[in-house]
Amino acid sequence: NFGAKLGAIDNVAASALLAGAANQNNLQLGKAAKALRHEIHTVLQQVDYDYQRMQYNTVVSGAMKMLNALEAFKGSGAEQARGDNAALAEGFSKLLRVLYPVTPHVTHALWSELGFAAVQGDLLDAPWPKVDPEALKQDEIELMVQINGKLRGAIQVAADASKEQIEAAALASEAFAKHAEGAKPRKVIVVPGRLVNLVV
User: Fold this and answer.
1) Which of 7, 14, 39, 161 could be cross-linked to 165 through a Cys-Cys bond (beta carbons 3.0 to 4.6 Å apart)?
2) 10 Å Cβ neighbour count for 107?
């Protein structure tokens, strides 16, 4: 139930010291914080598009995805705590602004409770959140590994990895070792950004 989850935002956010974190710039973000920002901004891009098309059911669905990402966030470790808090603060700030046209009373109260009003002013005057193109970029991507056309696993590679690097990662993967049964690949098909198919 989205209403119950929305009411529990302050429980999730309480430990993040959101208002203070919202003002911190140029912090080093750990891997988890970068992944959270990527998820929030990817969903925000879709939500913005859905609002323009007046597809309000998918706006609420997008807000639910944002909330789930914020709830699931575990952080990058003690040395990255300030960056983690900044990523959380940014995520909650964007979530509340996205939800404001749909649930103005609840989001206005949460905006004040979480300390955003003291730092960023009243929610009514807050600008619509913008998508950060830098947050949409990924350092690593996941590619599916197929053996003879059947999905057998996945690998993580650098977003700018060459075809040769992707092939090497796929051949060194646990999925290939397990399912190829020692056979050498006859052909390697790389579909950039999606998958690697190893034909044995």
Assistant:
1) 161
2) 21
Do residues 92 and 156 share a domain?
no
- Show the domain range for 161: 140-199
Q: What is the CATH number of the domain that holds 132?
A: 1.10.730.10
Place of tokens 């206005």: 108
If asked whether residues 123 and 192 sit together in one domain, one would say no
* Boundary (domain end) residue, out of 108, 136, 164: 136
In this structure, which amino acid lies at residue 185?
P
pLDDT tens digit string along 43-97? 999 999 999 999 888 998 999 999 999 888 887 666 567 778 888 889 999 999 9
Taking only the tens place, the pLDDT of each residue in 133-153 is 988 887 788 899 999 989 999
Tokens of 72: 């699931």
Question: pLDDT value at position 6?
Answer: 62
Q: Are residues 122 and 153 in the same domain?
A: no
3-state DSSP assignment of residue 146: strand
